[in-house]
Structure formats: C-alpha cells, structure tokens
Amino acid sequence: HVGPSSDTTLVLSGGSYLDVRAGVLRPNGAIVVRGGRIVAVHAPGSTWQPATDARVLALDGRTILPGLIDAHVHLTLAGDPIANAAATLRAGFTTVVDLGSAAAGGARLREAIARGQVPGPRIVAAGSWIGSKGGVCEFGGATVATAAAARARAQADLGAGADLLKVCVTGWAADAAAFPDSVELKPDLLNGVLETGRAAGRPVFAHAIGQAGALLAADGGIRALAHTPIVDSAGAHRLRARRTYVISTLVTLTAGPAGDRVRRSFRLLHEAGVPIVLGTDAGVLPHGRNAQELVALVEAGLSPLEALRAATLNAARLLDEGGVVAGGVGEIVEGAAGDFVVVLGDPLRDVRVLERPVLVVKAGRVVG
Ligand SMILES: [Zn+2]
Questions:
Q1: Which of 48, 167, 188, 323 is most buried, judged by most C-beta within 10 A?
Q2: Whether the Cβ atoms of residue 26 and residue 19 lie closer than 8 Å to each other
C-alpha cells in the first residue's frame, strides 16, 4: 500500500513537540493523525486513548517538529529525480518549491508523488525559468525577446501545470555586486509575466540578486526573491514595505566570490524585518542536505527559532498567500497536514539536530 495518505490512525505519543508559533517546546501527550491531517493534539495526562487498530509511535525523549519546507530546489535538473525526491523527504523536508525545470518535469514529478507512485515531498512546481537571451536563464530555461512572447511562455507554463512562474531579472551574485544597476530582463517583459500570473491568480518568483532588479521585481508585485539579494539598507526597507519574501539560499550563494556582500545584505534584510524563507537551490547543493541551510541561517544572525520559522511558518505563509498549497503545513495544530520530522535533542538550542532526523512522517505515513 503506497497511497499518498494513510487510512490508519497514526499516533505520535510522548516526547515533546515544537510549537513554532509560540516558540517553545511543549510536552506531548498524543498527536493524532487521520486521513493525512492532524485531528487532535492531546496534552500529557489526557484521558484520551488510541483505538486498538491505531499505529502508535512511542517518542519519549524525542522532539517532534512540523515537516520542514524548502522553497527553492531543482529536483529534476540533474541526477535521478526520483532519488532526489526520496533524499529530500528522508531529510525531513516534506514540502518543497521546485523552482524551475525543463519540459514540465517538476509538475510531472509532483503528480507522480501525489498519486503515491514514488515517495517524495509535496511539490509546488514552477515551470521553466523565463528570461532574456544571453542572461542567466539561458541555461536550460526559456528566453523571450518581446512582452507578447513573455506572456505566451508564462501561459504555456501554466497550461503545462505550473503552480507558479519564475523569471530571471539579474545575473548571479558576483555580477550583482559589481553591477547593482544592471537588469537583464526589460521591464515590459517582466510585466508580461507578472500580468499573466496575476490574471491566473498565480504568484511569480524572481531570480533577482542585484539591487535594481530586485527592487524592480518587488515594485512590480513579485511575491518572492529566489535568492538573498545584494541590497543596501534603503533597498532592504523598500522590500519590507512591498512585503516581498526573500528565499535565503545562503549555503550556495555565500560559497561564491561575493559571499561577504551576500552575508552583509542578509543582515540588513533581517534587521529591516523582511520575511525570510528557507531555500537551498538544492541541485546546486546535493539533495538531502537541505538542513545545512538552517545552520547557515543561524551563522548569518538568525536565532534557531527564527531559522526554524523560515523553514515552517514563513514558508507556509508565502505558499498560502500565493494560493499554491491548500491547507496548513508548517505547524503542529489541529487541522494541519500530518507532516513531522522527529529528532534527538533541542532544536531551539542547536539546529544541527535537524541534520540527523530519526523519523519522518508525511501525511500520516512514516516515510523515513
Ligand atoms: Zn535555483
């Protein structure tokens, strides 16, 4: 039986769980999951008893967290997509945004996982990258030269099953640091994609690392930046005012020559109150090492709780506001998805405990 959600009742008994909204570990009585969703959270000492046919996992001494979310991966670009998806799920990441694939690969993998044909995280899929000829998107992406072509490409991606659109507005970090005013995608082409997304009720995410491109994208109504942009303090405050989300990708982005600029900019964004969402650009980083980004977020100045919120509440809010994930993910409350990652140790003291999950549950089914 490999269906996407289990019919049996699963009970996570004992241990403690992370109330990510309150920011505290709470002693756990029993978390009850049925039909893929959390149906009850009982405190210790509750008189509630599981039905005789329920599967009970005794988790004394363990810490239960909501399944984590990575808002920037590429599962189908290189290697075996099925192995990539399985590694991601085993790492405790039960929801991902596949932020660019060729030939609707992300949407097809999403469907295979949703049907229970292969194990993997819940996928929110972008289509191709849409950018200009000679720009960063030319690698495997779709290039357009006119606003009409940009609209047609975006429409084709949505028609092929994309949940959201991805545009490429500037180059990589070294270029973005050296040429902050450089913009690859002309405003009318960017607007063509944004208009198409708006008309379809679908969000647009942007690869825009340089300041001018990041602000152009934010002013145009982009929902999230796919990487930490290199901005000054005024730029950071403008992103905050626009309610633009920033997907971190610190591990991969700070490995390059402009790493210090990225780190400095990240601090400004955090200080300005820009909502930070965890993303790795996995595919660049090996799949299944997504929790390394939690460590990078803490090294960059976030508290462990803030880093965990970037991978849960903040990411869930981004997807919820974008209308691309139906139902709650990212927290342990009645009605939310039955997705969990279980660890040894206290993640509020040391997020590295997430690098070695002892148990992963997706939609009420033990998957790793
Ligand atoms: Zn990427």
A1: 167
A2: yes
CATH 2.30.40.10 residue window(s) in the chain: 10-66+330-366
Specify the fold of 10-66+330-366.
Answer: Urease, subunit C; domain 1 (2.30.40)
Distance 83 CA to ligand 1 centre (A): 18
How far, in Å, is the centroid of ligand 1 from the Cα of 77?
A: 10
CATH topology of domain 68-321: TIM Barrel (3.20.20)
Give the distance (Å) from ligand 1 centre to CA of residue 99: 6
Give ion ligand 1 contacts, CB < 5 A: 281
* 223-270 residue pLDDT tens: 999 999 999 999 999 999 999 999 999 999 999 889 999 999 999 999
Q: Which tokens in the block code for residue 270?
A: 């955090």
CA distance linking residue 104 with residue 134, whole number of Å: 22
Angle formed by the axes of helices 147-159 and 187-200, to 10°? 30
